[in-house]
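Progress note, sequence design subtask.
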C-alpha cells in the first residue's frame, strides 16, 4: 500500500496481539518446517553427486590387471635336405603371465596417457632329435618383460576433449537448472500459502467488523426495549441482528477452514495465541526497467538460457564429431628377454616413436548429421521460446503494476468514505429515531452501508496485497536464490 493510503488505516485492521505472526515470520516458518522442501533439496544433492561423479570418472585412473596360467603341448618336425639332417622337436610348456594397464584422460585437453606392462615366466621341457643322436633340454626357463608408455593428443576430432567432456558439461548445466527449479518450487509454494495467509487475515478482519456491528445492534435493541419502542421496530432490528449473526457464522466457518490448513503447515504454532498479522502499510517496490530486470533476474528466462547453452554444447560436440581423426602420439617401449636353452642368452630392446595418425570416413555419419540438424533447428525454437516467455512475463508485470496503482486509488476512496461515515451520519440517524423523528429501517440501512463499506475496504486491501505478492512472485522476489 502506498504511503498516501497507509495514513488512513482504521483501528479494526490493526492486530494488538503481542505474539502475532507476521508475513516474513510466516514465510520463514514454512521454509524451516515443511518437509516438502527437504524432498526437493535431495534432488539437488543427487544432481551435485552426479555432476562431480562425471568429472571424477572422466579424469580418474583406470587400472586393469589380467593374468594367465596355461600349458602348451607342441610337436614339430623340421627336415633339412641340404645337410641330410632330420630334426624332430617336442615341447611341453607351462606358461605364467601377468599384464597390467594404467590409463588416464586429461580433462583440459582430451589427451590420454597409457602405461602397460607384461611379464611372463614360461617353463619348457624340450626333446630334440637328429640323425646322429638325441638332444634334450629340461626345465628351461624364459623371462619376458615388456613395458610401454604412450600419450595421445587429439588435434581435430575431440580436440580439447570437446566430445569426451560433453557429459560433464551438460551435467553442470543440469545442476544449475535444478537449483533454479528448486527455487521456483519454493517460491510457488510460498505464494500459494501466502494467499491462504491473506484469506485468514481477510476473514478475521471481517469478523471483527461484524462483531462490532452485532454489538452495536444489540445495544440498540436494548435501548429500544428500555424506551418502550413499538414491537415492529424491535422485530425489524431483531431480524437485522439475525442476518448479521448468520453472516458471522459463515465467516467463522471460512476462518476455521483456513485455520485448519494453516495449522498443518505451521505445525505447533497456535493461531489463537499467535494470530496472523499483516503490515497493511507495506508497498511493493515497482521496477522501472522491467525489460532489463527480466533478462537478469527471472528464473524462467534463466532456465531458457541454460537450455540454449545445452543446445549449443550439443551442436559443438556433433560438429566436432564430423571432423577427421587426427592424433599425435608419442610412445616409449622397453622389451627384456632372458632365456637358457642349451646356452644362456638374453636380449634388450628400447624403442621410441612419434607419429601422426589420420583417418576419415568418406561416407560420413548419417546419425551424427541428423542430430546436428536437429539441434540447429532447436536453437531457433529456443529463441522463440525465450521471446514468448519474456513477452508473457513483461505483459503480466505491466498488468499487475496497473492494478496496484489502481488499487491505491480505490483504497484512498474507501478511506475518504469511511471518514465521512465516521463523521456521525449513522449516529445522527439513530438519535433522530430515538427522539421519534426517524425510522428504524433508515438506521439499519445506514449501518448496513457502513458495514459493507468497511468489508469492501478490507477486501480491497487484501486484493491489493495479493497483487503485491503476485508481483513479487512474478519477479522472483518472494524467495531469493541460494
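Output:
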Amino acid at each position: 500500500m502506498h504511503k498516501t493510503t497507509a495514513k488512513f488505516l482504521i483501528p479494526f485492521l490493526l492486530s494488538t496481539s503481542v505474539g502475532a505472526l507476521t508475513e516474513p515470520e510466516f514465510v520463514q516458518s514454512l521454509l524451516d518446517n515443511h518437509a516438502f522442501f527437504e524432498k526437493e533439496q535431495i534432488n539437488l544433492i543427487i544432481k551435485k553427486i552426479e555432476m562431480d561423479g562425471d568429472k571424477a570418472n572422466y579424469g580418474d585412473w583406470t587400472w586393469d590387471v589380467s593374468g594367465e596360467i596355461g600349458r602348451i603341448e607342441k610337436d614339430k618336425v623340421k627336415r633339412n635336405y641340404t645337410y641330410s639332417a632330420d630334426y624332430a622337436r617336442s615341447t611341453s610348456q607351462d606358461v605364467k603371465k601377468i599384464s597390467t594397464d594404467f590409463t588416464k584422460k586429461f580433462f583440459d585437453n582430451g589427451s590420454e596417457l597409457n602405461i602397460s606392462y607384461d611379464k611372463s615366466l614360461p617353463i619348457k621341457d624340450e626333446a630334440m632329435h637328429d640323425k646322429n643322436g638325441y638332444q634334450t633340454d629340461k626345465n628351461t626357463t624364459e623371462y619376458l618383460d615388456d613395458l610401454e608408455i604412450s600419450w595421445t593428443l587429439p588435434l581435430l576430432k575431440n580436440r580439447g576433449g570437446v566430445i569426451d567432456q560433453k557429459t560433464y558439461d551438460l551435467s553442470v548445466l543440469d545442476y544449475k537448472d535444478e537449483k533454479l527449479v528448486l527455487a521456483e518450487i519454493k517460491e510457488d509454494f510460498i505464494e500459494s500459502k501466502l494467499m491462504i495467509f491473506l484469506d485468514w487475515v481477510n476473514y478475521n478482519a471481517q469478523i471483527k467488523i461484524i462483531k462490532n456491528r452485532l454489538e452495536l445492534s444489540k445495544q440498540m435493541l436494548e435501548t429500544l426495549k428500555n424506551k418502550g419502542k413499538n414491537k415492529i421496530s424491535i422485530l425489524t432490528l431483531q431480524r437485522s441482528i439475525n442476518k448479521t449473526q448468520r453472516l458471522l457464522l459463515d465467516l467463522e466457518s471460512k476462518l476455521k477452514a483456513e485455520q485448519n490448513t494453516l495449522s498443518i503447515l505451521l505445525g505447533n504454532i497456535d493461531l489463537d495465541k499467535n494470530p496472523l498479522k499483516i503490515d497493511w502499510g507495506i508497498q511493493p517496490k515497482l521496477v522501472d526497467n522491467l525489460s532489463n530486470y527480466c533478462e537478469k533476474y527471472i528464473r524462467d528466462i534463466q532456465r531458457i538460457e541454460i537450455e540454449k547453452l545445452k543446445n549449443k554444447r550439443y551442436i559443438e560436440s556433433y560438429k566436432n564429431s564430423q571432423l577427421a581423426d587426427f592424433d599425435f602420439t608419442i610412445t616409449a617401449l622397453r622389451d627384456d628377454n632372458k632365456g637358457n636353452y642349451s646356452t644362456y642368452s638374453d636380449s634388450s630392446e628400447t624403442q621410441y616413436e612419434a607419429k601422426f595418425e589420420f583417418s576419415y570416413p568418406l561416407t560420413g555419419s548419417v546419425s551424427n548429421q541428423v542430430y546436428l540438424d536437429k539441434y540447429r533447428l532447436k536453437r531457433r525454437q529456443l529463441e522463440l521460446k525465450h521471446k514468448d516467455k519474456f513477452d508473457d512475463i513483461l505483459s503480466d508485470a505491466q498488468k499487475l503494476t496497473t492494478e496496484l496503482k489502481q488499487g491505491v486509488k480505490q483504497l484512498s476512496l474507501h478511506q475518504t468514505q469511511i471518514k465521512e461515515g465516521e463523521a456521525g451520519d449513522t449516529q445522527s440517524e439513530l438519535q433522530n429515531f430515538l427522539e421519534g423523528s426517524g425510522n428504524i429501517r433508515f438506521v439499519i440501512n445506514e449501518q448496513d452501508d457502513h458495514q459493507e463499506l468497511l468489508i469492501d475496504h478490507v477486501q480491497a486491501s487484501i486484493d491489493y496485497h495479493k497483487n503485491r505478492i503476485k508481483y513479487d512472485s512474478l519477479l522472483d522476489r518472494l524467495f531469493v536464490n541460494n
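The CA atoms of residues 51 and 236 lie 75 Å apart. Work on this subtask will continue into the next period as scheduled.
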